[in-house]
Specification:
Elements lengths: L18 H11 L2 H14 L3 E3 L4 H20 L28 H10 L5 H12 L11 H8 L3 H12 L11 H11 L5 H9 L1 H5 L3 H8 L3 H12 L22 E6 L2 E6 L7 E3 L12 H38 L1 H6 L9 H8 L3 H8 L3 E4 L2 E4 L7 E3 L5 E3 H13 L9 H10 L6 H10 L5 H4 L3
Parallel strand pairs: 2-5
Antiparallel strand pairs: 1-4, 2-3, 5-6, 7-8
């Protein structure tokens, strides 16, 4: 076989992932808070970048933005399930959102410090308190605690008993059964059929096997129902009511949709991200004879320019994507959840003229504030069905209809999944019993057996 070496000129197209392009893609995916953190890091590492001062014209713009933001806050409390546009909105007292309760740990330590116990048992109690989960359960094994603290298992159990006697009842339990038992003991209700149900039949209660329990203990269905109702009033997470201000997480919307004079306006929220500009001082260095300094400044200048360009591109893309969503989902914004349409990312990509993957990155982890409430942007991308008349129904709309049907059902004779499917069919919404069951489970609604009340 003869081997030949020659030169050929061939033209090809390739997408090369440069560091700048990679940065632009990453910036597009960031939400407002993540973007703010990135910008602060860039300001620290790139001396050519600086925050742009606000002049009088920008102040006027910011005042308009403030007015629009004020409007969105005033209407934000309207639940998106509500189909009324004229409901009077109660003024929100933001002090109500601030917890004045101590943390669970502080609450228990206070009780411990006024309880007469030996120093050794107090040390064990403190260890148990600091080991509790946010729900108030002790997940560590007694044997492991004894080894760590170099004490006996009996001493650990003594300390556990002391902590379990504290408020709130049910605290420091090792499982759900013990948690419920502790609360019943505190109420002097750990007896009779209630005691038997908690000790041996939590699984049957969860499965709604009330008839089986009635036959097992030779009592009426009504007595079983009353006992179950009493048990369900107990708190399965006794520590959850103790939360500090630090535990509260706030969602900053990346985009706001505001309705004015019958029209919807899209505003990209850049209030948490400062405007950037190039520091003019460093331009003089480019005219100097220090080649090393010029090389450094040039690299930082390119980096700064690309960052500013990427931020503007992100803002423009996010604006166009949300604007397209608003146009397609106007009925939802006007009338409520029952008018939410099925929508795909490809539809938005075709409208905006970008790739579907760009839409995915643009909406990733971002939220939009609308007159109907605050939503993750992904919420608007719903699967759904079309009826014979060509009307489209999103999955969320169908779920809402299922919720309403179940809310209005007879508790003694709850609707089966097939019956719900039949009712929806009468409304020209053709879905199978299996789909009804799927949507019901996604809404955390129990099955027919578990909803039945006697």
């Amino acid at each position: 076989m003869r081997m030949e070496f020659d030169l050929k000129l061939q033209q090809t197209q390739k997408l090369i992932m440069t560091p700048e392009l990679k940065q632009a893609i990453e910036i597009l995916q960031l939400n407002s808070l993540e973007l703010s953190t990135l910008i602060e890091q860039e300001l620290e590492t790139n001396p050519l970048l600086e925050k742009e001062e606000t002049d009088e014209d920008e102040s006027a713009y910011e005042y308009d933005l403030y007015e629009l933001s004020k409007y969105i806050r005033e209407t934000e409390e309207r639940m998106y399930y509500d189909d009324s546009d004229d409901e009077e909105i109660e003024e929100v007292n933001y002090e109500n959102f601030v917890s004045t309760k101590p943390s669970l740990t502080d609450h228990l330590l206070f009780q411990l410090h006024i309880t007469p116990v030996s120093p050794k048992i107090q040390k064990i109690c403190e260890y148990i308190i600091f080991s509790l989960s946010p729900s108030g359960y002790l997940r560590e094994d007694i044997k492991d605690i004894a080894e760590i603290l170099e004490c006996t298992e009996e001493e650990v159990l003594e300390g556990l008993s002391i902590v379990q006697s504290f408020d709130p009842p049910g605290i420091a339990a090792r499982n759900l059964q013990e948690c419920l038992k502790l609360q019943l003991l505190a109420q002097d209700s750990y007896k009779g059929i209630i005691k038997k149900l908690v000790d041996y039949h939590l699984e049957e209660i969860a499965e709604g096997k009330y008839s089986y329990l009635a036959k097992l203990y030779n009592i009426s269905l009504k007595e079983v129902q009353q006992a179950v109702d009493f048990i369900k009033k107990l708190n399965p997470k006794p520590g959850s009511s103790f939360s500090s201000i630090a535990d509260v997480r706030y969602i900053v919307p990346d985009v706001e949709v505001v309705k004015r004079d019958g029209e919807y306006f899209v505003i990209v929220n850049d209030s948490v991200t400062p405007k950037l500009k190039i520091n003019n001082y460093y331009h003089s260095i480019l005219n100097s004879h220090d080649e090393e300094a010029k090389k450094y400044i040039n690299s930082k200048l390119q980096s700064a320019m690309w960052l500013i360009k990427s931020l503007e591109s992100r803002k423009e893309t996010l604006y166009k994507v949300v604007k397209a969503i608003v146009e397609l989902q106007r009925d939802f914004l006007d009338k409520g959840i029952n008018y939410l349409k099925p929508m795909t990312q490809k539809q938005i990509a075709d409208i905006v003229g970008i790739h579907e993957s760009t839409v995915s990155r643009a909406i990733n982890g971002k939220y939009v504030a609308t007159p109907r409430g605050l939503f993750e942007i992904k919420f608007f991308f719903q699967s759904g069905i079309s009826n014979r008349n060509g009307n489209q129904f999103s999955a969320e709309t169908i779920k809402n209809l299922i919720k309403k049907l179940i809310e209005e059902e007879d508790p003694a004779n709850p609707l089966s999944d097939q019956k719900i499917a039949d009712i929806l069919k009468e409304k020209n919404i053709n879905i199978s019993r299996r789909t009804v069951a799927k949507y019901r489970e996604e809404c955390n609604i129990p099955s027919t057996i578990k909803r039945r009340r006697y």
